[in-house]
Amino acid sequence: MNNERSTKTAGVLQLDKVTAYLKEIDVLKMKLAEKVALDAKVIQVKEVCDFCQEDHLNGHCTPEGNTEEAKY
Question: What's the Rg (C-alpha) of the chain?
Answer without folding.
Answer: 31
